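To assess whether the prediction recovers the assembly geometry, we first specified each molecular entity separately, as shown.
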Amino acid sequence: MLSALIWIPIAGAIAIFLLPLTGAKAKSAAIAVATVPLLWSIYLFTQFDLGNAGFQFHEFLPWLTALGLNYDLSMDGLSLLMVGLNALLTLVAIGSTAQDTKRPRLFYGLLLLVSGGIAGAFLAQNLLLFFLLYEIELVPLYLLIAIWGGDDKRSYSAMKFLIYTALSGALMLAGFLGTVWFSNASDFTYSAVMGQSLPLQWQLGLMVLLLVAFAIKVPLVPFHTWLPDTYVSASTPVAIMLGGVLAKLGTYGLFRFCLGIFPDAWALASPYLAIWATVSVLYGAITAIAQKDIKRMVAYSSIGHMGYVLLGGAAMTDLALTGAVSQMVSHGLILALLFNLVGIVETKVGTRELDVLNGLMNPVRGLPLVSALLVLGGMASAGIPGLVGFITEFLVFQGSYRVYGIQTLLCVLGSGLTSVYFVILLNRTCFGKLDNKIAYFPKVTFSENLPAIALAALVLFLGIQPNWLVRWGEPTATDMIAALPATPPTLTGSVELADLPPAPPLP
Amino acid sequence: MATLTEPTPTKNVIPPSTHPFADIIHRLEAGGSMLPDTPENLKQIIGIYKAYAVPMDFYWRDLLYIAERVFLDPLPAFKYFLPQSYLDLPNHYAGDTADLRIWRGEAEAHPELLEFMEKGELGKKLPKIFHHLWHDRVNMEFAEACKQAMLWHQGMGGRFNDYLYTDEYKANCDQAIAAYFKGNPLMLTLHKHFPDLFYEKCRDLSYYSNLGLFWEVMAPVFFEMSDIYDEGGFKGVPDAMDFLVNGIFAVAGRPIYHHVYVGDECFELVPKSKAFTWLYEAALPYVEAVFYRTAPFRGTKSYNAQAHEVPGDQKDFHYGILYADVFPVGSAGIPPTLLMQDMMHFLPDYLRDYYDDYCRGDDDVLIQLGITFQRSMYNVTSAVIQALRTALLYPLDDPNPEHRLANRQFFEAQMDRFLRPEARLRDIQSQDYR
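The predicted structure of the complete assembly is given in tokenized form:
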């Protein structure tokens, strides 16, 4: 049941590689392929048992049992949301791709490979399988950035992304190996209790490894420096995948593996995590204000918004974690919407510079619908009520305020700063007078607008009916919080190696 | 790609101009227009003249109707509902009854105009009030804005405006007012105690008549130019300009007057006997007021007069079509969108096809045709400048260097008005300005 989400995109990718399709046909084929996992995800939503907080739709195939690596898939509410987001944004990314993209078969094929791999990572119940799928994204993404990137720095940005993510993978592998060895697990099968048998110091050490690994992927300050370069260099569809889905692999990893496997260590570290989240939020927002390139501005805003997710996790309340999980989806939708619109602006106007753009709201020669949707996306990102960004941020703040009041208030301030830079962006880009010396922009066709319209509709709908978003992650979040210690543990004494359980013999 | 074919310059007897618009001045000295002579420009301006002439055929009839019949109606709700008698009013420059037959067509309202008035843009025959309320009609508001510009700027030369403040004019007004408000003691009392109120309204209406009589000439001129072009008659932009210059001189003496009809009785507020003529009392003030000056359009752009964004002196106003930013949010002194909307209904097929090939085709056709209109009005202004030069100065091929220098100074003085950055003279030199 779950394998379809992985193998349909991959099989589609291989077919697109092999078939002699031209640009428009390759795009149609890719859309057709990407539609299937989306429909399948919707079906899974209808079949998902909300009363069951555990994993569902289990699939298991022995693979390399000697290594402890098995094809083990399953999903809970968190995975379900992430898989749905991945399927949707893959379709949006393909829909946002220019018709005249060079080497279209390779492009769409790689995009589908990434999508299939990400779906697998969200579903993997085996740590090694997760690692493999996490790492396997690197090659197609590197190529997607390096070949189809939009500026002169694309090779540099792709290499930077590769190095950072490879480092992230190495730390993650070390964390997983340590967890399995020291916990005497028989294989790499994910278990929420596998880390709890370890002494707290060891839990903390292993969790820090994973924390840094996933913090790079999210990214959180100060591991973020790859993000602005990569997002800006990447073409619009790749930026959508990077910001909308790939970043969620990081936050997913934080919750699934750091919080899930090491709840005691997570509880111990949570005050520092809340501070870290606050720093990320404020840094992202303040840096975004200083940007002159609207894509870079949106990229920095992403850093800030991912801070809310960490704050929600650090607060360790049902409400905050539910908000954080919902924020992952909300951020994915809003960021994809913004990147899509920025991409259209760049394609039509030929620049992303705030100092050049003006008056795009002009109804005749401007990009009025794009501008209107940009206003909506900016409002959603700034957490304006009635849009999905508000409800998810509100849940996080509501849930975290009683635990980390000051950090939460500072994050609310960050939300206010979001309004500042979006007002700057919208005021300079959409409003004012369009200069008719340059205003000969090509018309935006309906098919070009369609992905943004669909995303905007979803942002609006989920803002009005947030339960359609929140209810899927709520049981899982509640379950995760229940596993956390009632009172935060404290580090006492020192740990001798002899105290540790003996590591299992290497296979 | 259109090729530029400059008029052949006459023999140089004076050194080249050093004016920033020297190229354009040399073109004018060679008998050309401010608008470059390209087939594309010719097609655009003739096409838009035709599209302008059809609503203009309504404008002049309705302007005369308002000036002559609606007059001082305190609630002129139906002043745009032109009666059949005014639709049938024979144009003095078209048809068999013409004083001077400029257009070979009929003297009554143009068939395309009648068809549009009947079915509108909707293409359905509905009661006139529905078309009106749906704004599916000819926008007289544009014509009234032009009239308002002429009234407001005044003092642009000529004697017409001065006459409106004479006792003779006021006495004529008194007679018409007394007849119009006969049996209406309220209005008569109002006029007795506040006479300036209705005098000022009469002056306003005299400008309605002035502009109506001006456009009565221009509509057949533009129709005829369109027909000549369709027959392959114009070889270039200078030909079109020359036709306008000849037309200007042919009708220059046409009387400008204001008659008011109350029942069967006619009151001459501005009698023909005052000998106000078309060129000096209507055409030149019109060009000055509408093409150059007008007023900041009350659109979405705000002007801060206290910050000197609006000139302190009316003669320095520069909001006319020659300076207009044709974008709907722009600065044209006349409501440009209304005129564009009117012209859009009557575009010839070749111009519609032309617009389809550029920018956003049908989606921004209003802007494209607005810019074409701007080009065409630069050509009309060129004709006026050449006509003035002909009337006041020397022939272009005059062998006397002093005469040629006088012509040069005249052209340079005219071009000085386009040195300000808002002027679109630089823009129209390029075919890419759309």
